[in-house]
Design goal:
With about 180 residues, the protein is α+β, with helices and mostly antiparallel strands. β1 and β2 form a beta hairpin.
């Protein structure tokens, strides 16, 4: 389905106990010429992310404990970023945003729409001066897919195209990728 003027409406919550910002994006677009004319948008998906300011964590371990409180995937991602066998190094005064998920409604679930959502997220993160964006390279979630299939098909080509670098993980699933916005 052709989309016109996709937009992400962001909302944030400062989670004091975890010392992070929780982010949510409602992805909307005009999905027909009629909607374009009357100005109404349709929800086509959503995304979640967290923003870590590394200068507010005493050490890597406290950052990993925060990630563990959020989810196993977030802990996995941050553990590879902080302790993986790669040359990437974060300093103690940088901002990192791991993307938790990208959900696309079934009728809009196309590669180009997923790419556009990620590009919009990346532009937003660059605008608010985030240093790094992290992802686990999986296919976007959709209402009709079973949970198992969400994790089993990495979108490696998409993330390479968008400038992400591979940091570690497993060959067929849970590959952690990072993008430097500097």
């Amino acid at each position: 389905m052709k989309l016109f003027d996709m937009n992400i409406i962001h909302s944030h919550n400062f989670e004091e106990d975890l010392n992070i910002i929780e982010g949510y994006g409602r992805v909307e677009a005009y999905t027909s010429d009629d909607m374009l004319e009357d100005g109404s948008r349709e929800k086509i998906g959503s995304c979640t992310y967290h923003i870590y300011n590394t200068s507010h964590f005493l050490h890597d371990q406290s950052l990993l404990m925060t990630a563990d409180a959020i989810s196993g995937d977030e802990l996995f991602m941050l553990d590879i970023i902080m302790n993986g066998e790669h040359e990437f190094q974060m300093t103690s005064d940088e901002m990192l945003a791991p993307i938790g998920h990208v959900f696309i409604e079934d009728k809009f679930d196309y590669y180009e729409n997923e790419k556009l959502i990620l590009q919009k997220l990346m532009a937003y993160f660059e605008y608010i001066s985030l240093d790094y964006i992290a992802v686990i390279a999986t296919k976007s979630e959709s209402a009709s897919r079973e949970k198992k299939s969400v994790i089993s098909f990495p979108q490696i080509k998409l993330y390479k195209t968008l400038g992400f670098e591979y940091l570690g993980g497993y060959e067929k699933k849970h590959q952690v990728w990072i993008k430097n916005n500097n």
